[in-house]
Amino acid sequence: MTTPDPFSLPPVSSTEPRRSPLFLIIGGLVIGGLLIIVGGGALVWSMINQRGSAIPELLPAETQIYAAITPNLSDLPNIDRLRRAFPETFDYQNTDQTSDFLQERFGVTFADDIAPWIGAEVAVAVYGLPIEQLSAVVGELSNPFNPPATLNPLEDADLRNTNVLLIVAVRDQRAAQAFLDKQRTFREAQGERFTNSTTNGVTIYESESDETAFAAFALARNMVVFANNATSISTLIEQRSETALARSAQFQAVSQRLPTDRIGTIYLAGDGLARFIDSLFASGSLDETVPMLADMQSAAQAMQGVGFTMAVIESGLRFDAVTVFDRNRLSNALREQLGSLRPTVSPERAGDVSSTAIGVFSFGIPADWGQRLRDQLEAEPETANALRDLEDSLNISLDRDLFSWFHGEGVIALLPIDSVELPVGGYFALRVADRSAAERGMQRLIELAEDLTGIRTGTTSLGRTQVQAFEEGDLFFGYGFNGNDLVIAVGRPAMEAAFGVEQKLSSVATYANALKAMPSPNGGVLYINLTAARRWFNQTNDPIDPELEQRLAPFTAITSSGTVGIDDRGVMRGTLLLSIEPQ
Known about the structure:
With 583 residues, this protein is α+β, with helices and mostly antiparallel strands. The protein contains 21 helices and 20 strands. Helix 6 (131-141) packs across helix 10.
C-alpha cells in the first residue's frame, strides 16, 4: 500500500569572441516552463506557509534546502475556489489512507494524537549533501553510452553526513510529548529498539534500525523534530542565532526578493548549486569551451540562491521561481550582455490569436541574434569554413536572406482542425520591421527548399489575400504576409485564423485574468488551454477515463511567463499560473 506523509496532501582571447546569450534570452521563459514541474511537486507537498517563521533561526547557515509548509489548508486566503473544486483535499487528515498509514506505522491517529498539538508551520531542511558525488551521478545518468550499472545510482553516494530534518511547530508541549511517547512505545512493541542521549536537558531518542528514515526524534525548542540522526537534532538545540540560516546573506537575498503575497517558500542555496555545476564541468559532463555553457558557469558563481513560492489567488494557484545573482560577481562581459537584454513582448501577440487555440507561445527574437551566432561560429576556423562552404553550396547569404530581417515579436499558435488527415494545425507569425526584405528572403528560402525537396508551392487565394502554399487534400503548408506579419502555417484553417478571427484569446476571461498574474514587462507568454486540450484528445484518441476526467476538469489553463535577463537588483523571475474553475 502506498503510504502518505502524515503532514502532506494526498497526491494530485585578447579579443574575446562575443558569446551567445541564448540561455539568458530565454532564461525567464524556461524558468516559467519548469514551474509546471515544480508546481506539480508543490501540490503533492501541499500548501506552503507564508507566516513569519522561527524555524530558520534553528537551522545552520549551511542549510542547502529549506521548505516551510502549513498543515492547515483552511487558513489560507482565496481558498474557497479550491475548496469547491477539490473538496476531498480539505479532509485529507481524516481519509482512510492517512488513518491507515498513521496507525500502521506509528500507532497514532491524527485527530487524537496530532491535532491537539500541531502548530501553524511544518518545515523540511537538508544540509550536508555530498554535492560532488551527486553531480557525478547526474553526469553518468546523462551519458546515453554509459548507462548506470545499478537501478539505484545513488547507492555509491556517501550520505552519512547528510542531515534531513522534519520540524513541526508545537502549540501544546504536553500533548506533543504524549504523541512522541505513544509512537515510540508502539514502535518498540513492533520490535524497534531506541537509545537516548541528552543535549542541554533535551532527551533525544534514536532508533537502532537502519531501515528507519527519520531515526531520531525529540521535543526541542518548542518544536517536534524528526531527523535521520541524533546529531542534527543536537545541532538544532545548540544553534546560535548569529550562525543560523536566518542570518545567512544568501538566504536573506533570496527571501527578501520573493513575491510579497506568497504563502510559503522553498529555498535552494546558491553556493550548493554553484558547486554542483562546477562539478559537472570538472567531470566533463559539461564542456566549458562551449560559450553558452561557459556563460552558465560564470552566472552560477554569482548565484545567491533560488526561491520557489506559491500563492493562492482568486483565479487559481500561482507559482513563482526567483533566481538572485550578485551582480558584482558577474564577469564584465556577462554583465554587459545582461544589461542589453530587455526584449519585451506585447501581450497582444498572444492575445490576438483565436480563442479556440489549444496552446499559444509568444516571444521576442533580438535584432542581433544572427550576428551573435555568426560571431560565435566564426570564432573557430573549422566552423567558420563550414559556414562559408554551406553558403557557397546553397548559393545563399545568411546575412542578407535571413539575419537582416528575421527578428521581432513572434507567436506560435496550435489550433484544432476538423480533419482526419490533419487533426491539429498551427502557425508561426513574426512581426518584421522590413517587409520588403522579408519577402525577398522568404522567396529565396522557398526556392531553395523546392530545389532540395522537389516539392513545389503555388499561389493560393485566402479571401482577398494571396499566399504561397503547397496544398493537397487536407494537407496544407504555406506562408504569406498579413500586414507586417510573416505567417507560416500548417493547415488551411490555421492560416485563415492567422489572418483574422471572430473571437480573440484576449476576450477570454481565463486568459485575461492569467495575464494579470504574469511579470510585466516580460519576454513572452506560454498559454495552454487545458479544457480545449482534453476535448481535442478525446476527439482524436480513446476518451480519458471518466474518473480522471472528473479530477482534471477544474484545471482550465496553464499560463507561464518570465523576465528576460536580470534586473538592477540581480533578480530573474518566472511565473506559472494554474487556472482553476470549480465544476
